[in-house]
Model the fold of this input.
Amino acid sequence: MDDLKMIEKALYAYVPSELPFAKALTDSMSYSLEAGGKRIRPRLVLEFSRLCGGDDKAALPFACAIEMIHTFSLIHDDLPCMDDDDMRRGKPSNHKVFGEDIALLAGDALNCLAFEVMSRDDTVAASGADVCIKNINILSSYCGTDGMVGGQIIDLENENKTADLESVTDCDRKKTGALIKAACEMGCVCAGADEEKIAAARLFGENIGIAFQIVDDILDVTSSDEELGKPVGSDIENNKSTYVSLLGIEECKRRVDRLTNEALDALKLFDGETELLKELALSLSTRKN
Ligand code: GRG
Done:
């Protein structure tokens, strides 16, 4: 089975199916989980685990957990009180289909499910309590005030004013970069890797995370709604300072190349096969959606 199929099969199976009283909730969770997406974060977990000698079966619950958190963040990010986006992954946003109340709860439930999956008996039996606790710690801290939520609040506070590059970088490192970095570190932890390897994975994640957000900003001005699967031009509409508005497209492209090369350099520390991670880093720098 290829990686995408393996991730999606496990991911969809985690959504509770026998909750007749809450069918709208589980439908709403499944709607966003099954709406597609590149599955970058779970693929990073699996690849780093393999690179450090880990077993796919043991890494899979952690790969699914991070995709649940990512999906949760997208559902909440699209809500009217946040970015107010009607389309996501080429489909109507969750709240457009299920209503704001259910979308909010579906996000909350996916957040809880991620941590439940990482601490379930079968996950602990396969990976050991140490690995589970370390990964729960990584994921929760990279989601919180120093991670995704911290980035989102900087983003909100920067709306309708000109932010400087330092603030935009701080925002993106937390809002987008933290979860990508978490995926790389968690994969290493799954395989029981040492601190040196975890630090190299962190550096790889940090660099591709910022490159990923710069590409996101570029696509927001150069792509189309159809190609991107969500409305383009939202940064200008929301009067947001971005890498593109601060540096221009050409300098942004140079930075993406530089960051991608720095990410590739970080992989030199590993003895194993890094080809897929290199491909992933390069494909993110040239992605069209
Ligand atoms: C989830 C802890 C938590 C808090 C919610 C709303 C919010 C606080 C944070 C927003 C985080 C966010 C949506 C950042 C944007 C990250 C980003 C560029 C997402 C797009 O990622 P892709 O391109 O999406 O990997 P696909 O659709 O391919 O999965």
Notes: The mean pLDDT is 95. The two ends are 25 Å apart (CA to CA). The first helix runs from residue 3 to 13. The chain has 16 helices and two strands.
